[in-house]
Amino acid sequence: MGRKRQPETGSGDVGFGGMFRSLGGFLDLLSNLTEQGGKEFTRSGEVGDDKKGVKAVYGFSVRVGGGGKPLVERFGNVKDDGRSAVVEEAREPMVDVFDEGDHLLLVAELPGVDVGDIRFEIKDDVLSLSAVRGERKYRKEVLLPVAVLTAGATPSYRNGVFELKLTKAK
Prior knowledge:
By secondary structure, the chain is mainly beta.
């Protein structure tokens, strides 16, 4: 009688060996980004169960900021609650904040909603962004790098991209 062949483990291997292989791959990625002069790297995916109506959307973006420091931005609706991964109803959109001298420019990817579905609120240095249209639900809190004025915020939305221009406080 022959031995049964064990199934191969791929990128889903979560043991210590898999963890260190993933960490090594991540460090290689950061090294490559630094060598490329700060280009951005993004990966995403979806997992769904039509029978249960569950859809997990996950992803991350890595880019090299000032001084070669990596900036990792995650997005999707999969969160870590400390014990396991949890799929939330609202997705966390991809958001970038740019310092443009006298103002900040926030850019968020919110496909599948209309401009009237988008809400934002600023309290101190935290911007809360949300949008709901049918099954599409987005929610994210963004820590702003500087204080901004709530009056005079200029929003715009086109082709699934929301932009918000915020004047810096003096």
